[in-house]
């Protein structure tokens, strides 16, 4: 008999690549994980791991068992969802959100949930979309609010189900006294952008290149509110989403970008997840976003 807990450790190792990364993600010691995987090898009767320098990697047998482990974990999740349907609020819903969603969408969504499913416990963590989507597959989260930009569609994973949340216009952000009105006029300015490796950074750099210049990215900040302060103080220019201004007046100038681009927000959940609580959170986020879009249209 294979123990589900040990199968999950093997699947985590397949996803994360190192015992240290698995230990960090699951709050175990590396030695504990090694012991459990050694026991799993005994249960399987074949070698599942082999040395790879100072690390270990999955053997062909390990890869086969890890693939089956993913299906076992999906089945376990489906069973738990059916059990939870008897008492929908029993199991917490863990949600990863990006910063603007945490500020603009989540408060209203939680208000809706207190009316619709008052006993449901929702746990919110603000993480970059790239990390949130990875941790969704690793079962750290049940639901993720993520984004994608024009021409930068995120990879579709068969085990992950997506639903559109709404569109968020992106605009050029400049200091109140700045005279530039077009992207190309800001080629000599210092820029503030999100860190390397994020979809937001890749997209913003491409906009500058399409305008004929390479941006001088002097400031890398994941915190968009910090970006706002730098731009408002005249130290940089940037590209910011409209969701930042749902309940406040921008302290800077917002200028249309070529083509009036929008980023698309979406929720993602594992396809095997059918819990009523996850569905309720998803619906509340969508309805909260719809209300914000309606408010924005009224203001314009």
Give structural notes:
This protein has 300 residues and is of the alpha/beta class. The protein folds into 3 domains: 4-84, Arc Repressor Mutant, subunit A (Orthogonal Bundle); 93-165 and 263-299, D-Maltodextrin-Binding Protein, domain 2 (3-Layer(aba) Sandwich); 168-262, D-Maltodextrin-Binding Protein, domain 2, CATH 3.40.190. It has 10 helices and 11 strands. The chain has helices at 4-16, 19-26, 30-44, 60-84, 99-104, 106-116, 129-137, 199-210, 224-232, 276-299, and strands at 49-52, 55-58, 93-97, 122-126, 143-148, 160-174, 190-193, 216-220, 238-241, 253-256, 262-270. The longest helix has 25 residues, at 60-84. The protein is globular, with a radius of gyration of 22 Å. The model has no long low-confidence stretch (mean pLDDT 89).
Q: Could you give me the name of the CATH homologous superfamily of the largest domain?
A: Periplasmic binding protein-like II
Q: Helical amount among residues, as a percent range? A: 40-55%
Series of secondary-structure elements, N-terminal to C-terminal: HHHEEHEHHEHEEEHEHEEEH
Tell me the radius of gyration. 22 Å
**Number of DSSP strand runs:** 11
What overall geometry do the principal axes of the alpha carbons give?
globular
> Would you tell me the structural class of the helices and strands?
alpha/beta
**Oligomer classification:** single chain
CATH topology of the largest domain: D-Maltodextrin-Binding Protein, domain 2
Q: What low-confidence regions span 5 or more consecutive residues with pLDDT below 50? A: none
CATH architecture of the largest domain: 3-Layer(aba) Sandwich
Report mean pLDDT, rounded to a whole number: 89
Tally the helices: what do you get?
A: 10
